[in-house]
Write a structure and sequence with these properties.
The protein is α/β, with parallel strands linked by helices. It contains 13 helices and 17 strands. The strands form three sheets. The chain has a nine-stranded mixed β-sheet with strand order 1-2-3-5-4-6-9-7-8, with helices on both faces. Strands 10, 13, 16 and 17 form a four-stranded mixed β-sheet that branches. The longest helix is centred in the N-terminal third of the chain and has 19 residues. The radius of gyration is 22 Å and the shape is globular.
């Protein structure tokens, strides 16, 4: 029964008791009347139960998978997927993810994602046109808790301490535990400007051992071609975007601009402007002396706020094609249970709107002009030529397993070049006009192979960093 309930991610070796635990919940979900969602602090067992019940209520548009590693204390890390093709990637349908409860004592995101899953399921069944359209065009991954062990520690302590439960069971802050790819890209800016993406192959050392929760999410990022995502935190009210790390050490107030600064500001504003008051300039800051982010539109560059090394946000951007932002959802870390329904209503529209942003810009399929077979790991390079000003965006994305690519862009004119070793490059001009909750403009490429003499050999100057190659790098951890 459990194999029908949970699609296993990779081949994890899980504790027997953890598997039995999930079997019990699967049986309960099948043998009892499906429950109406309650606004409460769901404990870890109840969280799994909610996920399994949603799977039972909406089997045609959901799937479940378990990440390749459990938490330190053996709790499964589960993800629920929504799509009309929930079990596989479909070319030209972007993949989006939300991950919450990375810091175990920051609990609002965990409950919001459980409610979001319930909402999508119920609204799809009710024929809500907006939700039906979203599910038809997008594959959505919701992971309510990355740190269930920390949640348990925080809850057992009463949920009132600013630090207890923040870390995982080994005492490690998971949002400082990813490989520091910012260090690599900042060095590359000075020496190897053409290597600006998929940087896992350049990792030569780690600042600390990678925790199982971190490794599991890294494997997830490397294996699924996410286009956009957000991780949900608490402690302030602001949408934070890359870079999270300072270029010049821990310099207070330094704005660390990424090549996609305009696009990241678009994504952050797409949440802040649809939240009840994140972008309200008249709201009060969380604490005396804190910055009033409402006066800045409810958004901030991460490093300008404070520098973070080894964070999940920048890791997504620099290791894969994924554009991730960080959402601080409120002043309290452990939100009162009585406030949960109000917070859902304050965040609902923003949560839905941000998913739609995986459709901005352009997308398409890259093929071999002779065989018409899809080309995997082809590069998409972009130059902004709006108003006649040439401004290269020095961050390439790559095509994925079916030759499909997704390039998030704000409104404007762009030269877009598809390239791959052994092929002639192809450049096209495109005008991007992002219409409200519509799909990205389709721009396909067919690349002409270069015919070389049979005795010709060429040493490749660059290795094409792909998600599959990056996944192999995980074996070193």
């Amino acid at each position: 029964m459990i194999n029908k309930q949970i699609q296993m991610f990779g081949s994890p070796v899980a504790p027997v008791w953890a598997l039995l635990w999930l079997v019990v919940f699967a049986i309960n979900a099948n043998s009892t009347e499906l429950k109406e969602f309650q606004f409460k602090h769901h404990n870890n067992e109840e969280m799994y139960d909610v996920i399994l019940q949603i799977r039972e209520k909406c089997p045609s548009i959901t799937s479940l998978y378990r990440l390749s590693e459990d938490s330190v204390e053996g709790r499964p890390l589960l993800v629920v997927v929504f799509s009309i093709h929930p079990n596989y990637h479909k070319p030209l349908d972007p993949e989006f993810k939300y991950i919450a409860n990375m810091h175990g004592n920051e609990v609002l995101g965990r409950e919001l994602l459980l409610k979001l899953a319930d909402y999508i399921c119920e609204e799809y069944k009710a024929g809500n046109e907006e939700i039906v359209k979203l599910i038809t065009k997008t594959r959505i991954h919701l992971m309510p808790s990355m740190n269930p062990d920390g949640w348990q520690r925080s809850t057992d302590d009463g949920g009132s301490n600013y630090l207890i439960g923040r870390d995982n069971a080994e005492g490690v802050d998971l949002n400082r535990n990813f490989p520091d790819l910012d260090r690599i890209v900042f060095d590359n800016e000075a020496y190897y400007k053409d290597i600006n993406n998929h940087l896992m192959q350049m990792v030569d050392h780690l600042a600390q051992p990678v925790q199982p929760e971190t490794k599991a999410v890294m494997q997830m990022i490397m294996s699924i071609p996410f286009v956009a995502s957000a991780n949900l935190h608490g402690g302030d009210l602001v949408a934070n975007y890359p870079y999270d790390a300072s270029r010049y050490g821990n310099v207070q107030g330094e704005y660390a601009t990424s090549p996609d600064d305009e696009t990241f500001k678009w994504l952050a504003l797409s949440y802040a402007n649809y939240h009840a008051d994140m972008a309200n300039p008249n709201r009060m800051p969380c604490r005396g002396g804190d910055k009033n982010f409402g006066k800045e539109g409810g958004i901030t560059n991460g490093a300008k706020w404070y520098s973070v090394r080894g964070g999940m946000q920048d890791f997504n951007y620099l290791s894969s094609n994924d554009f991730e932002i960080t959402l601080e959802l409120g002043c309290d870390k452990y939100t009162k249970e009585s406030e949960l329904e109000k917070e859902w209503n304050r965040n609902k529209n923003a949560l839905i709107n941000l998913i739609w942003q995986s459709h901005i810009g352009i997308k398409g399929i890259i093929k071999d002009a002779v065989t018409l077979k899809p080309l995997v790991n082809a590069f998409i390079k972009v130059v902004n030529v709006t108003n006649g000003q040439l401004s290269p965006i020095l961050h390439d994305v790559t095509s994925v397993q079916d030759g499909d690519y997704y390039r998030l862009l704000t409104d404007g004119d762009y030269h877009v070049t598809a390239s791959m070793d052994g092929y002639l490059s192809s450049t096209k001009l495109v005008t991007v006009e992002n219409k409200y909750h519509n799909e990205a403009k389709i721009m396909n490429f067919t690349l002409q192979p270069i015919i070389l003499p049979s005795n010709y050999s060429k040493k490749r100057k660059r290795f094409a960093y792909s998600n599959s190659n990056n996944a192999n790098k995980l074996q070193m951890f």
